[in-house]
Amino acid sequence: MDEGYLPEDGPRWSDQRAERLLGALVCAVVGLLLALIVTVFVHAWPSFAHNGLAWFGSGGDVEEQLNQIYLSGLEGAGYVYTFHAWPLIWSTLLITGGAVLLAMFCSLFVSVFIVEFAPERMRDVLQPVVRFLASVPSVIYGLLGVLVIVPFIGNHLVTEPQKASVAGVISLSGYSLLAAVLILTVMIAPLMISIFSDGLRSVRPGWLEGSLALGVNRWRTTWKIAVRSARPAIVAGTVLAVARAIGEAVMLAMVSGSVAFAPNPADGLIFVYEPSRPLAPTIVKNIDSLGSAPSNATLFAIAAFLLFSAALFSLAGWVARRAMRKYGATA
Amino acid sequence: MDSSVVTPPAQEAPPAAPSQQPQPPRKGAVEGSATWRLSDRIGLATCWALGLLFCAIAVAIVVYLLLQGIKYLKPSMLVTPASGGFSQAESGGFSDAFIGTLIVAVMGISLALPAGVGIAVWLVEYGRPAALARITESTIEAIAGIPSIVLALFGTVIFSSTALGFLSRTSEGVVFGRSFFAAAAMLSLVALPLVVASTREGLSAIPQHVREASYAVGKTKIATVRRILLPTARPQVATGAMLGLGRIIGDTAIIVVLLGATQNFAPVGSAFPLNYLRGAGTTLTNFVYEASPTGNLNQPQKAYAAAFVLLLMVLALNAAVDIVHRRARKAGTWSH
Question: Between chains, do B148 and A114 touch, taking CB under 8 Å as contact?
C-alpha cells in the first residue's frame, strides 16, 4: 500500500478489517443477549419444573415458602422448590397497571400541551422539567417516598377505624399501593411524554390544517387528528413505560411495604392503603439467599417471568403499531 | 389564558430555538379558547393543571433535597469513610460511596462508549447483511427493555463462572462474583442503548453528499467515519455518553447485587488499582438505599446528604447535555 496516499490511516485501518471488527462487535452483543436469555431460563428451569402451573397460582404464605426454599438449600438434603407467586404477580399487576394508566392520562394531556397549546415560555420550562424528572435516580424517588409520601399517607390519609378494621390481617403504616403507584407514575410519565410529543410533532401539518379549515377548533383538531394519527407513538411509549415499570425494583422495594400480601379490591377502597410486594423487589430483598441453589432457581424464575412479560408487551406493541401503520405517523 | 398561535407542528425534532426558526410564528388570526365548548375548555384547563403539576413536582424535589442537603451535608462526609457507630454522628461519612460512584461511572462509560459508537457506526455505515442489521436493532431495543435487576442476576452467573472469576473475590474456590468489574460491565449494558441511539441519530442526520465528497478525494470508508463523520456527530455522541452516565450513576439494583452489601471498599490482594476494582464496594445509590429507613443502616440524615450529592451530579449532567445541544445548534451542524 502506498503510504503517502493515506498518511493518517495506514493499512492497520483497512476497510475490510474495520468492517469485520465492527461486525464482530455487533455479533458479540447479539450473542450476549442470547446468552442472557438462555442463562436466565436455564437457571430458572428447576423452579418451574417442580411447580408447574402452580408457580403462577396462589396458596400458602410466600415469605414462608421462600424461607423454606432457602433453608433446604443450606441443608443440602432434598431441595424444596414449592413456590406460589400469585401475591407477587398480583401486586405487580396492580402497581404497574395503576401507574401506567395514570401516567398515560397525564402524559397525553401534558404532551398535547407541550406540542400544541403551551405558550413559548411555558414550553421552555416544561421540557427541561420532563427531562429532569426522567433522569432522577430511582433511589432518590424511593427515599423521598419513604420519608415524605409514606408517612403522609400513614398519618393523614389512613384513618384509625380503617387501621383497626384490618388490624388482625395487616398493618396499614403508609407503605401502600397508593404510594407505589403515585411515585411510579412520576417516574414513568416523563418517558411517555417525550415519546408522545415526538409522535405528535411528526403528524403531517396538512391534516391539521385541513381540519382547522373546516372550522373545527384547535382542541378538537388536536384530539381527533393529531392524537389519533400519533397512536403508534402512543403505543410505543406505553410499551416502554410498561417495561420500565415492571422492572422497577429499588424504588418499589422501598415504598411498597415489602409484604407478600395480595390486596383485594373487593374490600373496598381501603385496598389502596394496603402493602404488598411486586416481583422485582422480591429479587432485591432476597438477594442474599442467591448462594442457596433452590433459592437461586426461584429468583431466576422470577427474573425469567419479568423478562418474558416485558418481551410479550414489546411484541404486543409491535403488532399494534404494524396494524396502525396506515395512519402515517411514525413512532 | 392561551395566547399562542395556530402553528403547524414544528417538523424539527426539538422545538427549535427562536433564533433558528426561519421566521417568527404568525401573529393574529388566533383562535382563543373563549369560543370553545365547556368540555373543550375543561380539557385545556386540565392540560395547564397537569403541566404546572409536573413543574411543581420537579421544583419540590429539588428544593426539598436542597434544604435537607444544606441541613445535613457536611464537607467532611465526602472524605470520611463510613464506620460502625450507634448514632448518626458516630458513623462517619460516605467517601467510599462517593469514590465508588466515580469509579463505576468511569469504568462503565469507558466500556459502553466505544462499544456503542462501534455498533452505531456499523448500523449506519455498513449494516450488511440486512438481516443482521435488523437483528442488531432489535437486540439494542431489547437490551434497553431488560429490567436492570435481571441484568444483575445474569451478572452474578457470568462473573462467578471460572473463566471470569479472577475479576472478583475468590475464597477456597468459591467465586463471589461481586466486584467493580462485574458491576461496571453490567452497568455498561444499561448505558449502551442510549449511546447507540444518540450516535445513530447523529450519523444518519449527516447528508449523503458529505460521505461522497470524502470518497471522491480518495478516503476509505473507515477513514471517512473516523475523520469526518464521527467528528461531525460529536455533539450526539457526547449527549449519548452523558445520558448513559446518568443512567449508570443512578442505577441501584445492579450495584446492590453485584457490588456488595458493604459500605466500605473491600480490596482483594495487593496490586494497587486492581485490588480495589476486584473487591466489593459501594456507590452513592447503594448508600442511599441502605441508609434509608427501609435499609440496614437507617440513617435518614445521611441518606438525605448522599441523595443531595447524587442529585447534584444528575443536575450537572443535565446541564452539560443542554450546553452541548445549544453549542451544536449555534455551530449549525446538520443534526440540529
Answer: no
Q: How far is CA B134 from the centre of its chain?
A: 25
How close B29 comes to chain A (CA, Å)? 12
Fold entry, domain B99-283 = MetI-like fold (1.10.3720)
The CATH number corresponding to A86-327 among 3.30.70.270, 1.10.3720.10, 1.10.8.50, 3.40.50.80 equals: 1.10.3720.10
CA dist., res. A33 & res. A209, Å (int):
46
Per-residue pLDDT of chain A (331 residues; tens, 9 = 90+): 444 444 454 555 688 888 899 999 999 999 999 999 999 999 999 999 999 898 998 888 888 888 888 888 888 778 888 899 999 999 999 999 999 999 999 999 999 999 999 999 999 999 999 999 999 999 999 999 999 999 999 888 888 888 888 777 777 888 989 999 999 999 999 999 999 999 999 888 899 999 999 989 899 999 999 999 898 899 989 998 998 999 888 899 999 887 888 888 877 788 888 888 999 999 988 888 888 888 889 999 999 999 999 889 888 888 888 877 766 555 4
Determine the Cα angle at B10 with ends B7 and B12, to 5°. 165
Measured from the Cβ of residue A151, the count of other Cβ atoms closer than 10 Å reads: 15
Interchain pair A119, B148: CB under 8 A: no
Does the beta carbon of B33 lie under 8 angstroms from any beta carbon of chain A? Answer: yes
Total-model pTM: 0.88
Whether B132 and A23 lie within 8 Å, measured CB to CB: yes
C-alpha to C-alpha distance for A289 and A293, rounded to whole angstroms: 9
